[in-house]
Amino acid sequence: MRLPLPSWMDIFVMPIINILAAFFVAGLIIAAIGENPFRVLAVMVKGAFIYKGALGYTLFYTTNFIFTGLAVAVAFHAMLFNIGGEGQALMGGLGIGFVALGLGGVLPPLLVVMLAVPIAAGFGAAWGSIPGWLQAKRGSHIVITTIMFNFIAASIMVWLLAGMLMAPGQMSPETSRFAEGVHLAQIHHIAGALGIPMARSPLNLSFFIGIAALIGVWVLIWRTRLGYIIRATGHSEKAAIYAGYNPQKTIIITMAISGGLAGLMATNEILGVQGRVVLNFTAGYGFTGIAVALMGRNHPFGILLASLLFGALYQGGAEIDFEFQTITREMVLMIQGLIILFSGALALMFHPMMERFYYYIKSRKGEAPHG
Amino acid sequence: MAELWLQSLLVLDATLRVATPLILCAMAGIFSERAGIIDIALEGKMLLSAFAAASVAALYGAPFLALSTAILTSMLFSLLHGFASITHRGNQVISGLAINILASGLTITLGIALFAQGGQTPYLTAQARFSDITLPFAESARAIPIIGTIYAEVISGHNLLVWLALLAVAVTGFVLYRTSFGLRLRAAGEKPEAVDTAGVSVVRIRYQAVLIAGVLCGIAGAYLSVAHGAGFVREMTAGKGYIALAAMIFGHWRPLPALFACLMFGFLEAIAARLQGVEIIGLGAIPTDLILALPYVLTVILLAGFIGRATPPGAIGQAYIKER
Questions:
Q1: Yes or no, beta carbons of A331 and B40 under 8 Å apart
Q2: Is ipTM beyond 0.85?
Q3: C or N: which end of chain B has fewer Cβ atoms within 10 Å?
Q4: In chain B, domain spans
């Protein structure tokens, strides 16, 4: 018998227990390697928040995870599992490349940037909606098709960046630099112009696009008709049909929105930092989005918190490389795997234990459990 | 002409070498998925076992000990997958994904801690690896045209694990379609209630299936690092587990068609390697990157039902809840 827990326990206590379990196992592995887990934690916290410019880097990574986390979450609301964030973000980057390289010298830089941002979303949306269409109209499983689309996108990128888009006279597979001014301003530059001294970091205006996306998704899912249809389709496709909604259309639209959000991740990396299209700039952030969405319970506020945690993990992980001989930043990947395991696949493992604990405390207070 | 013939034979030889891990993983996937458990962790289990095999081979120089360790490692993570998705009825895709990401991080972290070579294992000497087996009379057969050259170039000169992979296909076919265990396993993936009604435990069968999948992924991993390769390199599976998954789907979750899909995908990879930098007059360089993407494209097209239809096992991805 599974007894219900009060919602505050479900929403706050259970995720924290699952994360602690993941950190506990990670700590055991670190201890087995022969390092002190608490020292590692201290170095990571310092690296993520305390050193000069650290917070900027943490928020820079956070921005990536906000986009990819939201992408996974929106699809989850329609019960679609979008593993294709990597590919959709790559396509977003490609879209930025086309606009920035094609129009960079022709139009004013500001206009190019204003075009490039929606194009990034558009390319991601297109790449996401194809698996959506295949699921809706042809019945192919979205998990498998989005995995395949990641690889196809990666191949297209290699083909283009090592071929027709490769910068002349270059040996590495990347495009030429974008024209002067075609980038999203970095926050420390803006602060500097306003007379506020701030340490250098790659944090740029995409962060605010990310915050806008968080709010936008909240409005979309809980305050609009489309959001209602998405959730209804996710809860019960039959009920959605009975209510007069077309689930096929909903699946395609949801995947387009999801892919568009993943595509926006490219604005942070390509327009914010690189200033050209490079290979593999997604670096697994699309997959991290799954962990972020699971931890954040598919709610924008939860996703913000989870993105901050992962931003801190990535930035703190970079610090590990400097401080330790035997462990490196790849340890963060291990922690990420453990978090997906505990807060995703084993999400309910600690549930019975917490039930017993909760109702034991309750009965001690002399209140009988309801139901 | 003779040169072209030799070149084609070398491509076929390379095809078999490249296809071996795909074949083993595809059979692993068939066992797991025919029992109703989605296994996208083929990639991760193969990576973990490749690392385990290379580490043991580097430390003790014993290939068979390396193979056994690889199999045990892979089975351990199969158990974890089973624990999450069978016992705790967690999402099977998420569990598999977690294992894949965990594998990437864990192999590099442990590799640096053990060998301090940036995540690689030391280069393995011939004694520590499975060496190529030259079949009897291979050299003298070379003189016989066609059949003799095929024997010498394509059939001879493979290591033990290549043969084990081909054997695995026959065994998979036999177990699935000719034994009562296979019948129960397939039933657990199509109609678990029926298995339950017959008084057989669905949970037990599914655990057995994922463990067999673990064994096969373990062999595949050992093949990569101590037979085909000479040591572990970070991320050395490089998506092979996903290609195997595609091959399994392409083969409609059946051993023999999956074998042919693996050989076809292996052939594409072998031919792409040969065509690297080759130019066709008037068309320019052959886009080998796009040839390498063909397995994924073809799988998408097949799944969409444009060339036949691939129907997955009926109860795949669903945890079984026993009726009370």
A1: no
A2: yes
A3: C
A4: 2-124+143-238
pTM here? 0.92
Q: Is the predicted pLDDT of residue A237 greater than 60, yes or no?
A: yes
- Of B40, B80, B304, Cβ closest to residue A140: B304
Q: Where would I find the beta strands (DSSP E) of chain B?
A: 132-133, 158-159, 279-280, 284-285
Nearest CB to B249; choose among A81, A144, A349? A144
The two structure tokens encoding residue A215: 């709010």
User: How does A38-63 read in b/e, with b if 16+ C-beta sit within 10 Å?
Assistant: eebeebbeebbeeeeebbbbbbbbbb
The total domain count for chain A is: 1
Across the interface, whether the CB atoms of B93 and A337 are under 8 A apart is answered: no
Q: Nearest 5°: phi and psi at B307?
A: -125, 90
- Taking a C-beta distance cutoff of 8 angstroms, is the pair A147, A81 a contact? no
Residue A369 counted as domain residue: no
On chain B, the residues whose CB falls within 8 A of the CB of A332 are 105
Query: With an 8 Å Cβ cutoff, is B105 touching chain A?
Result: yes
**Does residue A226 sit within a domain?**
yes
Distance from CA of B292 to the nearest CA of A (A): 8
pLDDT in tens, A316-351: 998 888 888 888 888 899 999 999 999 888 888 888
Helix (H, G, I), strand (E, B) or coil at A283: coil
pLDDT in tens, B67-89: 999 999 999 999 999 999 999 99
Q: Which residues of B touch A83 (CB under 8 A)?
A: 93, 97
Domain span at residue A172? 62-297
Per DSSP, A204 falls in state: B
Q: DSSP assignment, residue A46?
A: I
